[in-house]
Amino acid sequence: MAVAASLANSTAAGAAAAERKPARFALARRTILTPVLLSLLLLAIALITVTTGSRPFNQTVIDVFVRVILVVGLYIFIGNSGVLSFGHIGFTCLGAYAAAWLTINPMMKRGSLPGLPEWLLATRLPYWQSAVLAALFAALAALIFGRVLMRLSGIAASIATFAMLAMINTIYSNWESVTGATSSVVGIPIVRVIWPYLIGAVVAIFIAWAHAISRSGLALRAARDEPTAAAASGVDIPRERLVAFVVSGAVMGLGGALMAHSIGVVTPDTFYLGLTFITLSMLVVGGMGSLSGGVVGVVLLSALIQALRWLEAGVSLGESTFALPKGVQEIALGVIMIVILALRPSGLMGNRELALPRSSRNK
Amino acid sequence: MLQILFDALSLGSLYALGALGIALIFGVMRLVNFAHGDVIAFCVFALLWPSTDAMAIVFAGQLPWYLLVPFVLLCGAGLSVLCEIVVFRRFRQANPATMMIASFALGFVIRYFLLMLFSSRPKSISLLPELSQPVEILGARLPLLQLITIVTTMVILIGLTLFLRQTRFGLEMRAAAENFSMARMLGVRANRVIMGAFALSGALAAAIALIFGAQTGTLDIQMGASIMLMAFIATVIGGLGSLGGAVLAGFLLGAASVIMQVMLPIDARPFRDAFVYGAVILVLLFRPQGLIAARGTKERV
């Protein structure tokens, strides 16, 4: 049946290719505003940061951009397929360690990670090259895992992806000679300039957009909304899911590499449940059905976390200093998340994308 | 050999109880309750008086066992019902992902609330110390506690089965788990059933807390999370919503962990969990509906 479906699919594609192409461009024109607006939003944040010139603020914004990459990576798979994945931070872990392997000074590597193959011990790449390679490495891992996992759907797929995350974490926490086990891998060159992270985030957003309007992305969203109808119209669901899984794996790997360069240290537990849940929360609070939701979720929740941290550190109001007791930050964050979700169950953005009002687009 | 069997059974008991707590709620609400682990942690810390000192000030832990056990069970059930009333009631119509994240956020709140009261340092406590004496059975020396764990679990499981099969409330709950809207139409009161499920699940969490606290002798805020993850996996490979499946899978996971610990070559032992999770993926590939597929969870077209 699958063969018949794919056959029908390919003939239909061949016959309709001629008239479909303009439709594709129309789709691209109609939707390109979203990634452009989102990128402008991030650019504005970056410009504000650079003009204030404050160092801690700079680091915070870098964290925000890294999270944007991660959440956009999650969106590519979760948003389009509707399958909740708990495993994507595993790819971030792979990406971060790959970046560490490629960029740490060979002298240090020989001491701390003696189990690496000889050619890897000798290489030392600039960070942007290593980030691209890390993304490819993560994509390869996603391809291998995805071949197996994408046959599942629903909650079974979620658990299987979680099992994958736990496997990656266990291996990286114990493979002493290659990953340094649970001790931190230090010596990753730290990049403190904001622009590479901005570029990374913008690239991630455009990748997500291009995937969403591609044939595969459209088919996947059709399968998310109406699995039976989509399968009957010749959508090979596991295959489309695999495509999304690999693309999102690459973006997560890129995010991992940049995260490694932003903090300079990696440990396996940085990339485990804590990060998984915070990124998932950002996606769901923002609205997991839309790319804008992911980005808006990151920006808003990060701003909220930062504001609460400031309050916790103490704010002077005239004479007296006002400070929240320690621990209130997390509790408030949890409560606010619950309230947002109770009021807007499908997230802040719902399924809508950020765009100019409809009238301004000459439809 | 016998030692291995008992290790597997007692670890499996913990997983099974945890899985049952998650499966009960999933059955009636389609909610995967990530706050369950934090309910466990809360029950453990209910034994102490709130303080951030390194020394644990034992409060309820000093009670004789016949008061201690009901007290902790009530704590768990109470907290769980409270969660339902305050939070989950507002998410009845939400999609599973939203509910999942909401439950995670709730767990986050509970965890940091505990952190505020007790600080993050693990605390040692000797809970029911008379239980740690070893006993000799068929030539194997076992801690008494392990036996009690297994026996208690069996008693709880049998009790729960009787409750679900013999009482009217149990019948309503099973009906609700199978087809919630149909059950409501036939006169099952939704709020009562859901609150009942939360109370039961909270009490199960409390039981885990007691057993775990007595076993390890240390109280740690993270302790609920590790059990919860395994329990969560057990719930899924058992067949979401199927109580029998959850218990079976809990025991299987416990057995798999213990057996791999013994059978794997020394070099591979640190990677034991990776093998366990690999096995989980394999099980899911062959039986995506779970070992015992619950009726009513199949996707309807």
UniProtKB/TrEMBL annotation, chain A:
A GO term, aspect molecular function: branched-chain amino acid transmembrane transporter activity
CC annotations in GO: plasma membrane
Pfam families: BPD_transp_2
Coiled-coil segments on the chain, per record: none
InterPro entries to which the protein is assigned, alphabetical: ABC_transp_permease (IPR001851), LivM-like (IPR043428)
Sorted UniProt keywords: Cell membrane, Membrane, Transmembrane, Transmembrane helix
Cell compartments where the protein resides: Cell membrane
Membrane-spanning residues: 27-48, 60-78, 84-104, 125-146, 152-172, 193-212, 242-260, 272-303
Superkingdom of origin organism: Bacteria
Membrane topology field: Multi-pass membrane protein
Descriptive protein name: Branched-chain amino acid ABC transporter permease
Organism from which the protein derives: Mesorhizobium mediterraneum
UniProtKB/TrEMBL annotation, chain B:
UniProt protein name: Branched-chain amino acid ABC transporter permease
Swiss-Prot/TrEMBL keywords: Amino-acid transport, Cell membrane, Membrane, Transmembrane, Transmembrane helix, Transport
Coiled-coil segments: none
Protein's membrane topology: Multi-pass membrane protein
GO biological process, one term: amino acid transport
Annotated TM spans: 12-32, 39-59, 65-88, 100-120, 140-164, 193-215, 274-294
Keyword Membrane applies: yes
GO CC, one annotated term: plasma membrane
Domain of life: Bacteria
Family matches, as CDD domains: TM_PBP1_LivH_like
Keyword Transport: yes
GO molecular function term, any single one: transmembrane transporter activity
Localization: Cell membrane
Record family assignment: Belongs to the binding-protein-dependent transport system permease family. LivHM subfamily.
Origin species: Mesorhizobium mediterraneum
Pfam (any one): BPD_transp_2
InterPro entries the UniProt entry points to: ABC_transp_permease, BCAA_transport_permease
